[in-house]
Write a structure and sequence with these properties.
heterotrimer; A mainly alpha (410); B alpha/beta (474); C mainly alpha (325); B: 474 residues; alpha/beta; Rossmann fold; 7-stranded mixed beta sheet; 5-stranded mixed beta sheet; 18 helices; 41% helix; globular; C: 325 residues; mainly alpha; two-stranded antiparallel ribbon; 2 strands; 68% helix; disordered N terminus
């Protein structure tokens, strides 16, 4: 079976590809706003999260090993990157090596740590494994707090090397994904398409393409791993481990492989994330980051690549959508716009207004609009999972099947 | 009890609909002051000195001479100045920041209603950062092209991480963080407009006060990070200056979310005359109560963020009233100074039913500073970001009506760094008599229980300290 | 060797006093963990739900006590002249009752529709719940510290060299009473139904047990126990009151749950006490040891958990999963 077996799949992938290429230039009809800096930063974070989530999906979705330790492996990758690629300082180590060393190394070191952890992880199962990996996150936090030479000061961290491609340390970067300007100087004179300004790209757009390449490569690798002998052995372990062993699948080996590969993904994602954010504090690599990835996998639909992407975009972008929606409603209320009635249903605009649980002030009676945003995100997670426990991917499958048989659906 | 959360299901549906409608290419922004703008030109003209204003009549707009240069974040047509706030409204520091944010909003609303700054309306764009580095940067990216300056930005790690971005935009930012490095232009290009004394100098002044009270042996317990290490550096300088002895060194030993027994035992075993805490209120209370329970006899004081008057409502209230002295950058809610009274009146009118808070004063004073900055920029005829930064770095003698020490930003760090601090003391009896937690802002005798023990002073160690670099380097 | 020398130095003048106090403080902290772990384990045992909202529920419970005891004086306002201790205890009981109701509501609205769905999908639901509960609770308490108004305050009992806060003694007593009540409860008809459901839902149903009712009871008990843990982690000396940080206590109880075994009631109590003592004793003796780094005491529970799991993969008292081909 090919990677994209049907014509429909081929066409939709091609369409997605074109959209992905046009996105940062604000050239997408209706979705031009996505090219704004504010949105691009979030989309970039979503893509970086997608890399890590792809790795976790292999471990959780395919091999069935629930891990809450993804933030730990991301931290290992990020700190490998900063020690190899970062600038040395009075208080921190750094070798200043170029990206083609530190980025692969981030993945490799994380994978090695994963292999180191695996013997422990292989012994415990199910939820116990989830909590062992959770322990890793807490032990990691202790390490990062104490390894000042690596991680920088507690609560302040240290700067990360930028996404710049240089041949060796001290040399000028050949390509920089961290500064505004043309992507490559030799592309400058070419004005490819009238609405695509490749000669003056924002650094967010450049970062976007850099990460996009990684996402595509890692997604293809994940897809292929799932189809190979290794991936199928993981699925066998997930479905019934003893049966898998009886059939000759080496359980410990399979789990170790899954841990290593998933940690590799996490390490690379952690390094890119830290590099794009520019500075990470040791406390960033916490339990909540780990949980976010498990939410991504489960909201999206465990075990599928498409689900990973849907989950990532849901988790990263929904808070912003909710925020914009409530903000718009609040504006309607305070300006008496034509949708003010809608906001009035739940926004308390004056102290005498007894209807409504939300106030426009940051504090005061009722939830603030900012608290409402958090609550709504929680509600959305619950509603999604109750409506479709298989995640967004499950909804997608239902919609697809409906239209497949249309108009003969029942 | 408010329990109408079944609404939320309905809300979700609406939110999704609204999201579809609301996300046009242009961002909508808060418009608190828009209505005020049209009604204020008359008053503004009367006070104009250096700037010639365009009339409201569009036909003549081009003919009029407007010496004012404007840039991003300023709408010259509508005469609106947009300033941003990157506030932690849902994260760990929300208790403090919500009050600060609301006080600023009230300040700008009143200012706009009274004619704005020379007829310019100030519009606040508030974003919630959740005290999260990534989110802080994302929110900054969201508003960076819309604002001319940022009048409050919560946190040290967040601001350090975003510093390069501020530099790119020459964005003036008022940090809600009292790290000593913000006063050093080599570190922040003069972009971070720090207010009040920093943790380091604050600690020196605390030791001056302890010296006055006859304390000889000192114990410290601080968070790890810039906050704790900066304060600890100040303590060490002060200890040497006043010839005291550090008998328990808990620098960086207070880890949030962990058992604090080791720190408590360290303090108790040291038997120090005074313990200086650099933590947050809840963990500070855990340590203070634990130490007293274990038989510690000394007194306590701490960096400003260590104390919150809400502690008086707790079981630790009597202890705080008995053994704790509080550092203060600006006077508490109930203190009678001209500046404070003005603020109290304004807040009482805006939120009559709310609880008093000492944090209102911090936000209010930040707004006063930002007001001065913008007024100076307009007076200089340069309301671009660069103009705003330049105006800020030449300001002298900003007066807060006695509720905070006079502040300047001109000259070298050693000239302008704020060295004054006040010492206050929580008084549980006073607080309870005024109604305790049931107090409202409309109450005339409302108080957070803080009484001034020593009005703004500059201790000898702080006065002689040659401030040329951050006490704790990041 | 170096370690021994350092410990000997750290112990200082009064080794006995130091150790006894660490033990007392550790048992009290352990009792809080044990209460939280009990609630978690009962919910997990009966309904197979990993409850990530446990911390939020604990904080909400503590807030309700603060509200009933210090703001509205329920039920004291109708009781006439009663002692402060009794008044507070009644308020706390009312709060626990309300929490039990909230537990039932949560189960009915969000957990019941998910019966039969994958374990972690349900766990994610509780994560969403956690966001909602924590944010609204923070709003209720105006985002600041709310004292619980407990009658013990910061008073201390001295027994020989042991100095222990009265609240800590109360915590340990409450844990003992709760454990005894639970032990009795599991012998009653309802308790038996709960155990049967935990053993096998379908078989239990076939025996005429209303699994829905069992779920509701488990959540009511679980939420009540979480609230108890929340209450005692918000009184002196563990805290000045309930505040936005209170909810984080649940994460500290996780190692206790695992060490005892996810589905063992006995394990929750023993695991909780063990972790509490280990954390405080390690903090006391290793806190000043420079080469171990700052905050080493905080990860001792996690290290302990890993060691226990290496030896016993299902915790000390957990039921090994029966693996079939």
């Amino acid at each position: 079976m090919g990677l994209f077996p049907t014509t429909t799949k081929k066409v939709s992938i091609a369409l997605l590809g074109v959209m992905a290429l046009l996105l940062p230039f604000s050239a997408l009809p209706l979705f031009g706003f996505l090219g704004d800096a504010g949105w691009m930063v979030m989309i970039n974070r979503a893509l970086i999260y997608a890399i890590a989530a792809l790795g976790l999906n292999l471990l959780v979705g395919v091999a069935g090993q629930i891990s809450l330790g993804h933030a730990f492996f991301m931290a290992v990758g990020a700190y490998t990157a900063v020690v190899l690629g970062g600038e040395a300082g009075r208080t921190v180590w750094g070798l200043g090596l170029p990206i083609w060393i530190w980025l692969p190394a981030a993945g490799v070191v994380a994978a090695l740590v994963g292999i180191l952890i695996a013997p422990t992880a292989v012994r415990v199962r199910g939820l116990y494994l989830a909590f062992v990996t959770l322990g890793l996150v807490f032990i990691g936090l202790f390490l990062w707090r104490n390894l000042g030479k690596v991680a920088g000061g507690p609560t302040t961290g240290r700067p990360w090397p930028k996404l710049e491609f240089a041949l060796w340390r001290g040399m000028d970067p050949i390509v920089s994904f961290a500064t505004d300007g043309p992507l490559w100087w030799w592309l400058t004179p070419i004005n490819w398409l009238p609405w695509v300004h490749i000669e003056e790209m924002s650094r967010h757009a450049k970062t976007y393409f850099f990460v996009l390449v990684f996402v595509i490569v890692f997604a293809l690798i994940a897809k292929n791993v799932m189809r190979t002998r290794v991936g199928r052995s993981w699925a066998a372990i997930r479905d019934r481990d003893i049966a898998a062993e009886v059939m000759g699948v080496a359980e410990a080996k399979g789990k170790t492989q899954a841990f290593a590969i998933s940690s590799f993904y996490a390490g690379v994602a952690g390094a890119i994330l830290a590099s794009v954010v520019g500075r990470m504090i040791p406390e960033s690599w916490n339990l909540f980051l780990s949980i976010e990835f498990v939410v991504i996998i489960l909201i999206g639909g465990a075990g599928t690549i498409a689900g990973v992407f849907m989950g990532t975009f849901f988790v990263v972008l929904t808070p912003r959508l909710v925020e914009d929606a409530t903000h718009w409603l609040a504006t309607q209320v305070s300006e008496d716009g034509s949708f003010a009635w809608l906001g009035n249903l739940f926004i308390r605009s004056s102290p005498d207004d007894f209807i409504g649980i939300v106030s426009l002030e940051a504090a005061g009676p009722g939830l603030s609009i900012y608290q409402l945003n958090v609550v709504l995100f929680g509600v959305l997670i619950i509603v999604f999972l109750i409506v479709e426990p298989l995640g967004i991917y499950g909804i997608w499958i239902k919609v697809r099947n409906y239209w497949k048989g249309w108009p003969f659906t029942y | 009890m408010r329990k109408r959360y079944s609404w939320l299901l309905l809300v979700v549906a609406m939110a999704l609909v609204a999201a579809a409608c609301g996300n046009g290419a242009e961002e909508t922004t808060t418009t608190a002051g828009d209505t005020a703008a049209t009604t204020t030109t008359a008053g503004a003209d009367a006070t104009t000195t250096t700037v010639v204003h365009t009339d409201d009549d569009d036909d003549h707009a081009d003919d009029m001479v407007d010496e004012l240069v404007t840039g991003e974040g300023v709408d010259a047509e509508a005469k609106v100045i947009n300033i941003g706030m990157l506030a932690d409204l849902t994260g760990l520091f929300a208790p403090l920041v919500i009050d600060i944010t609301d006080a600023q909003s009230v300040y700008w609303d009143i200012l706009n209603a009274a004619g704005g700054i020379d007829g310019w309306t100030v519009n606040l764009i508030i974003e919630d950062t959740n005290y999260n580095v990534e989110q802080h940067i994302e929110k900054y990216e969201k508003i960076r092209s819309q604002v001319v300056a940022i009048s409050q930005s919560t946190g040290s790690p967040t601001n350090v991480a975003a510093l390069d971005l501020y530099k790119e935009d020459s964005m003036l930012v008022m940090p809600l963080s009292w790290y000593s490095g913000w006063a050093i232009p080599e570190f922040d290009d003069g972009l971070m407009l720090e207010q009040n004394s920093n943790y380091c100098i604050e600690a020196m002044n605390l030791l001056d006060f302890i010296d006055e009270m006859g304390g000889k042996t000192i114990a410290i317990a601080t968070f790890p990070g810039d906050y704790g290490h900066d304060a600890a550096a100040g303590v060490r300088i002060g200890i040497e200056y006043y010839g005291m002895e550090l008998v328990y060194d808990g620098e960086g030993a207070v880890i949030p979310g962990q058992d604090q027994t080791p720190v408590i035992q360290g303090i108790v075993a040291s038997g120090a005359d005074w313990t200086i805490l650099t933590t947050n209120p809840s963990i500070g209370a855990e340590i203070l109560a634990g130490a007293v329970q274990a038989g510690y006899q000394g007194l306590f004081t701490g960096s400003v963020p260590t104390y919150n008057f809400g502690l008086l409502d707790s079981a630790a209230g009597p202890l705080y009233s008995a053994v704790f002295y509080q550092a203060a950058y600006s006077v508490g809610w109930g203190v009678d100074t001209p500046g404070n009274n003005e603020m109290r009146e304004a807040m009482a009118e805006a939120f009559p039913g709310r609880r008093p808070s000492d944090a209102f004063g911090i936000g209010w004073n930040q707004a006063i500073t930002m007001h001065e900055v913008l007024a100076a920029a307009i007076a200089n005829g340069n309301l671009t970001r660069e103009g705003v930064v330049e105006a800020a770095n030449n300001l002298t003698d900003i007066d807060f009506g006695g509720s905070a020490p006079v502040q300047s930003y001109a000259g070298t760090p050693n000239d302008y760094v704020q060295r004054a601090l006040a010492i206050m003391k929580p008084d549980l009896a006073l607080y309870t008599a005024a109604g305790g937690a049931a107090q409202t802002l409309s109450q005339a005798d409302g108080t957070t229980g803080s009484v001034i023990v020593k009005d703004f002073f500059v201790g000898a160690a702080a006065a002689e300290f040659d401030f040329t670099e951050a006490c704790y380097e990041l | 060797m170096i370690g021994l020398v350092v410990i000997a130095q750290a112990v200082g003048q009064a080794p006995v006093e130091r150790f006894v106090n660490a033990l007392g403080s550790g048992l009290a902290l352990g009792a809080i963990y044990a209460l939280l772990a009990l609630g978690f384990v009962i919910i997990f045992k009966a309904t197979q739900v990993v409850n990530f909202a446990h911390g939020g529920i604990a904080a909400l419970g503590a807030y309700l006590v603060s509200y009933f005891a210090t703001v509205s004086n329920i039920p004291g306002r109708w009781m006439g002249d009663i002692s402060v201790t009794l008044q507070w205890t009644l308020s706390a009981l009312v709060a626990l009752g309300v929490m039990a109701l909230i537990g039932i509501v949560i189960e009915r609205i969000t957990i019941r529709p998910m019966i039969g769905e994958p374990l972690f999908a349900v766990a994610m639901i509780t994560l969403g719940l956690d966001l909602i509960i924590r944010t609204t609770t923070n709003d209720f308490m105006n985002n600041t510290t709310q004292g619980l108004g407990d009658p013990w305050g910061v008073k201390v009992i001295e027994i020989g060299v042991l100095r222990i806060a009265q609240t800590q003694v109360v915590t340990i007593v409450v844990l003992l009473v709760t454990s005894l009540v639970l032990a009795w409860f599991f012998k009653t008809r309802t308790g038996l139904a709960l155990r049967a459901t935990a053993f096998d839902q379908e078989v239990a149903m076939a025996q005429g047990i209303s699994v829905g009712k069992v779920f509701a009871i488990a959540w009511a008990i679980g939420a009540g126990l979480a609230a108890l843990g929340g209450i005692f982690s918000s009184v002196a000396p563990r805290g000045a009151g309930v505040d936005p940080f209170t909810a984080l206590i649940a994460f500290r109880a996780f190692p206790a749950i695992i060490i005892g075994g996810l589905d063992s009631i006995k394990g929750a109590v023993i695991g909780g006490l063990l972790v509490g003592v280990a954390e405080v004793v390690a903090g006391t003796y290793l806190g000043g040891v420079a080469w171990l780094g700052i905050g080493f005491g905080g990860i001792v529970p996690w290290l302990l958990m890993m060691i226990v799991l290496l030896v016993r993969p299902y915790g000390l008292f957990g039921t090994p999963e029966i693996r079939r081909v």
